[in-house]
């Protein structure tokens, strides 16, 4: 396992050249407040900065625009919790002042409109993050109200545990959209993705996902805080193991991520973490200019090769990681001395070569909803028939007998994976009848054959998973209904129910000990041939 270097330190030197941080705070600039919650950078290079006490923009010419005009909508721009820029250059920002608002500003930062976020069921809809998909839909991550989507017609859609059965919490920390228009949702109990909100895909990590970031080369990176408070960083299906000192530090937290032009991942929180593909990091504590251990957000300005870091106590920091000239340091008024680098070891890995592997997604919907889809959906269990009994003579008679299914010779007791029997996503409705028709013909051509059908789903989560009981029960029910669908299909077409036994295992017996669709299957075992 390669190691991600985490350093709770206050200087990063890049390519053997000392890099100093420039600090903008409320004492040396028009920044309205030193607690910064979010940053977004538009196509012109303007930095849009949300603080706990107002909104401001740092223009490319180093001039500032502060939203503090009295008797205007500026008075609603108090605590800014999230900001993003759409492809037209419009700014979307979330504000909290007794009520929660979503604002839209034009390319120049002029007010266009705002909406009050609807609140019901006493849930907290405080907006943690905003992302915009390729169609222009706005996706909002809320504190305790699930995920909201606002489409291009202004219609609002709420996705919470009452709508999406896979959701294990309504506490959503972050949201991001990748180059394939996949929407990634980071929650306090796992990671999901969707393209349209109709189908949701959970992934096999169930801890608190503190942040999610996507790159333009297929990277999907997440910051994770596990049940013991340990911090982890995943990019696609690769875990970057933190140094022991940092991983065991209960005060270390990953708050935000960004990916720069070289594919290097930057994580900020209680310090700064850099993952670099090929080069070892260099340090010089004596010339450090980063004097906060409360970083809250980070953005990379590609046109200038500059990293911008927001903090909860000392305003905004600028680090020119790809600039030829050296940064000019602005002296901090805090007088704090740099802290110590915990582990100066860097890891190497090409992020572009790995892909995210999803976990089981076909968790059962309510039976009444699925059964109403089409006439071919089966919601009635096969007739209750006691399992057939077989004598010793029966066993001896067919011990060496064989039958043939799809050009494959099968003996008694042999288990066959019925690969052509497939189901629709999130349903026990057959996606086609081809596979089950093949089985029907086999049963008709071999009238003495008795079979056992076994249903399997994706593997169950670990038993220490907080939602293990619910998920394993759902998997078991889904496998039972799917195998009953196959049995009912055969019975309704003339096969005696006494020739079929059904069993359901849910996720207890996966073929592979990782997430793969090949775990989701119906198996057949020959019980009797003659």
General description of the model:
With 530 residues, this protein is mainly beta. It has two domains: 351 residues, Methylamine Dehydrogenase, Chain H (7 Propeller), CATH 2.130.10; 162 residues, OmpA-like domain (60s Ribosomal Protein L30, Chain: A, 2-Layer Sandwich), CATH 3.30.1330. The strands form eight sheets. Strands 19-20-21-22-1-25-24-23 form an eight-stranded mixed β-sheet. A four-stranded antiparallel β-sheet has the order 2-28-27-26, with no helix packed on it.
Keywords:
530 residues; mainly beta; Methylamine Dehydrogenase, Chain H; 60s Ribosomal Protein L30, Chain: A; 2 domains; 8-stranded mixed beta sheet; 4-stranded antiparallel beta sheet; 5 helices; 34 strands; elongated
TL;DR?
With 530 residues, the chain is mainly beta. The protein contains five helices and 34 strands.
Summarize the amount of helix as a percent range: under 10%
Within CATH, the superfamily of the largest domain carries the name YVTN repeat-like/Quinoprotein amine dehydrogenase
Mean pLDDT score, rounded?
Answer: 77
What is the strand tally? 34
Query: Which architecture name of the largest domain does CATH use?
Result: 7 Propeller
Which geometry do the CA atoms define? elongated
CATH topology of the largest domain: Methylamine Dehydrogenase, Chain H
Main β-sheet, in a few words? 8 strands, mixed
CATH class descriptor of the largest domain: Mainly Beta
Number of domains: 2
- Give me the secondary-structure category: mainly beta
Distance between the termini: 55 Å
Strand content: 25-35%
| Rg estimate, integer Å | 29 Å
Lateral strand order in the biggest sheet: 19-20-21-22-1-25-24-23
What are the low-pLDDT stretches, counting only 5+ consecutive residues below 50? 1-18, 277-288, 325-397
Keywords: Membrane, Signal
Protein name: Outer membrane protein OmpA
InterPro entries: Bact_OuterMem_StrucFunc, OmpA-like, OmpA-like_sf, WD40/YVTN_repeat-like_dom_sf
Pfam family, one: OmpA
């Amino acid at each position: 396992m390669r190691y991600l270097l985490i350093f709770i330190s206050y200087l990063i030197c890049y390519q053997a050249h000392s890099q100093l941080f420039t600090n903008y705070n409320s004492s040396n600039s028009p920044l309205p407040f030193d607690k910064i919650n979010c940053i977004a950078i538009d196509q012109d290079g303007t930095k849009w900065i949300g603080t706990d006490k107002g909104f401001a923009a740092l223009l490319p010419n180093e001039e500032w625009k502060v939203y503090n005009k009295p008797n205007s909508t500026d008075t609603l721009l108090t605590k800014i919790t999230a900001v993003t820029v759409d492809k037209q250059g419009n700014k979307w920002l979330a504000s909290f002042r007794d009520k929660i608002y979503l604002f839209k500003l034009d390319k120049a930062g002029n007010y266009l409109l705002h909406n009050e976020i609807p609140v019901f069921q006493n849930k907290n809809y405080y907006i943690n993050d905003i992302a915009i998909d390729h169609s222009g839909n706005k996706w909002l991550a809320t504190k305790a109200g699930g995920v909201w989507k606002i489409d291009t017609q202004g219609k609002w859609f709420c996705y919470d545990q009452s709508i999406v059965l896979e959701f294990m919490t309504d506490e959503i920390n972050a949201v991001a959209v990748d180059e394939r228009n996949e929407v990634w949702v980071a929650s306090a109990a796992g990671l999901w993705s969707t393209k349209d909100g109709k189908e949701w895909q959970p992934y096999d990590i169930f801890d608190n996902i503190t942040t999610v970031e996507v790159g333009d080369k297929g990277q999907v990176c997440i910051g994770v805080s596990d049940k013991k408070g340990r911090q982890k960083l995943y990019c696609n299906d690769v875990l970057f193991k933190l140094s022991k000192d940092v991983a065991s530090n209960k005060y270390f937290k990953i708050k935000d991520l960004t990916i720069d032009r070289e594919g290097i991942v930057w994580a900020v929180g209680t310090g700064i973490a850099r993952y670099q593909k090929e080069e070892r990091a260099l340090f010089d504590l004596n010339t450090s200019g980063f004097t906060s251990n409360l970083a809250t957000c980070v953005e990379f300005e590609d046109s200038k090769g500059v990293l911008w870091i927001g903090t909860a106590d000392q305003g905004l920091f600028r680090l020119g990681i790809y600039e030829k000239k050296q940064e000019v340091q602005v002296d901090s008024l805090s007088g704090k001395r740099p802290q110590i680098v915990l582990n100066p070891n860097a890891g190497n890995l090409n992020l572009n070569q790995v892909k995210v592997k999803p976990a089981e997604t076909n968790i059962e919907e309510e039976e009444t909803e699925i059964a109403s889809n089409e006439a071919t959906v089966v919601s009635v269990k096969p007739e209750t028939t006691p399992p057939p009994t077989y004598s010793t003579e029966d066993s001896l008679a067919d011990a060496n007998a064989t039958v043939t299914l799809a050009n494959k010779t099968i003996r008694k007791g042999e288990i066959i994976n019925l690969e052509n029997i497939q189901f629709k996503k999130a349903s026990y409705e057959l996606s086609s009848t081809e596979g089950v028709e093949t089985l029907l013909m086999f049963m008709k051509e071999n009238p003495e054959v008795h079979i056992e059908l076994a249903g399997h789903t994706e593997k169950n989560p670990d038993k220490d998973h907080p939602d293990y009981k619910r998920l394993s029960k759902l998997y078991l029910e889904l496998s039972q209904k799917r195998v009953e669908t196959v049995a009912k299909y055969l019975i309704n077409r003339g096969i005696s129910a006494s020739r079929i036994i059904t069993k359901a295992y849910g996720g207890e017996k996966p073929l592979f000990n990782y997430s793969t669709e090949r775990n989701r299957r119906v198996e057949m075992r020959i019980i009797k041939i003659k």
